[in-house]
Amino acid sequence: xxxxxxxxxxxxxxxxxxSASIPxxxxxxxxxxxxxxxxxxMIEGSIKLAVFGDAGRGSxxxxxxxxxxxxxxxAFPFDTVLLTGDNIYGKDTPADMKLKFEDPYKTLLNKDVxxxxxxxxxxxxxxxxxxxxxxxxxxxYRLNRKDVSFYALNSNYxxxxxxxxxxxxxxxxxxGWRIAFFHHPPYxxxxxxxxxxxxxxxxxxxxxxxxFDVVFTGHDHFYERVKPQDGITYxxxxxxxxxxxxxxxxxxxxxxxxxxSDLSFMLVxxxxxxxxxxVISKAGNTVDSGTIKRRD
Amino acid sequence: MMGIVMKDVRKAYxxxxxxxxxxxxxxxxxxxxxxxxxxxxxxxPKAGSDVSEFISRANLYVRELETLKKTLTKLSKHSTxxxxxxYKNELLKIVLAKRKGLARGNIFTxxxxxxxxxxxxxxxxxxxxxxxxxxxxEAENASVPVKVNAVYPEASELxxxxxxxxxxxxxxxxxxxxxxxxxxxxxxxxxxHLIIDYMPKALP
Lengths: 296, 204
Prior knowledge:
The complex is a heterodimer.
Chain A: H1 2-30, E1 47-52, H2 60-75, E2 80-83, H3 94-102, H4 106-110, E3 114-117, E4 141-145, E5 148-152, H5 160-172, E6 177-181, H6 197-209, E7 214-217, E8 223-226, E9 233-237, E10 255-259, E11 264-271, E12 274-281, E13 286-293
Parallel strand pairs in A: 1-2, 2-3, 5-6, 6-7, 7-9
Antiparallel strand pairs in A: 1-11, 4-5, 8-9, 8-10, 11-12, 12-13
Chain B: H1 2-16, H2 19-42, H3 49-69, H4 81-98, H5 110-123, H6 126-138, H7 163-166, E1 176-181, E2 184-189, E3 195-199
Antiparallel strand pairs in B: 1-2, 2-3
Helix pairs in contact in B: 1-2
C-alpha cells in the first residue's frame, strides 16, 4: 500500500517537472522583452557593437528581431553593426532595400547606428555602393575602431586580388585586435551547409599566421560558437531573418554553444585584451555569453 | 634547395674528376637543371597560349565596358538604392546594344575551355566532385538562363566560387566573375549581371 503511494507520488513529481519545463520553452519563443538584461561589463570607452546576418527578408520575424535589437540598444548603446551577409534576399530594388533593411532597422538607423556589410550569396556586388552599408564602394575593406581592425571579406569570391589586398592591409595594420567577418563559415555544425572547407583551406592558415582572434560568419541559419580552432574563435551568426530549426548537429565535436530554435543576434564589447559577447534571442533571452582573451 | 644539391654535386666531382672536366660537368648539370625547371613552368596550367587569348578577350570586354561607363554618371561610394538601380539598368542597356549578336565562345576559346575543364577535374575528384555537384544542384539558381547576353536574375543565388578552385583558374579582370549554374561555368559582369559567355558542362 505504502509502495503504491510512493509510486503515485513519484508519478506526480515527474509529470509536474515535465509540465513545468514546457512553459519555460514556450515562454522563450513568445515572450515580449520587458527589460533587457545585459551581462556585458559595460566598460566606459569600450567598443560596443552588434553582429548578425542572413537577415534581409522583410519578414515579420526580421522586424520583430529588429525591435528587440533597438530595445537592447537602450541598455547597451552600440554604435556599430557588423552584417555577416545575405543582407538582401531576392531582388534589391529601392522598394526591396526599404522593406528588407531600412524599415526593420529604422530605429537603429535613426539613432545613427552605422551598419557595415559583408556580402553573402544572396547579395549583389552593387550593394557595395549603397550608403547605409558603409562599404565605400568596395567588396572587402578594413574598418578601424580604436585598437581593433575589422576585416570585411567577400567569401563569395575569394580570388587572388582579394588575398593580395588582405596581405597588404595586414602589413600596414598595427592594431592589437584582428577580427574578420564574412558570410561562409569555415567551421559550422549545420546540417544544411556546415563548414565551408574550401574557404577554410584558404583563410584559416592565413588567420592563424596573422594573429586573428575572432571570426564572425553567417550562412547557416542559427547561432553557433565553435570551440577555438588553433586559438581562433569562430561564430556563426546567421539567424537574424529566418531560423532553420534543429539544423545544428546535436553531437558536433566542434560546438562550444549553439542555439537553433529561434532568431538571435550578438552583442559584443571589446575592452583592452577582452572581447565579451552576449547572444540574445528574439524573445529577449540570453542564449550564450562569455569572454574571449586576445592572444599574445 | 637546388643550391644545396648543386653544392653536393660539385663536392662529389671535386674528388673524382680532373680540373677541366670537373667544371665542364658542373656547367652541364646546371644547364640541364635550368632547362628542366623551365619545362616544368611551361606545363603550369595558368601559363602559355592556352589562356592568353582567353584573357585578352576578357580584357577587351573590360576596356569596352569602361569606355561605355564613362558615358554614365558615376556611382558615388554612398549612393541611394534608386541611384544604384538606375545605374545598373542604364549600364545594362548600353552594354547589350554594343554586344548584340555575340554568341557562345566570344570570350572562352576552345583551348582555354579544355584547360579549364582539366583544372576543374583535377581540383575536384571522387567524393569532392560529388559534393560540389550536390551543392550546385541544390543552389537556388535553377532559373538562370544559361545563354550569352542573358541577365543573371537578381533574385537568384550567386553561388560561391570555391576559393581553392578560383585560385587555380586563370585570373580574370575584377569586372568579370566566374559563376557556376548547375555544371555550367558562366562569365558574369559583376555590375550589370550580364552573362557574357559560358562553358557548358564544365564540371565533369
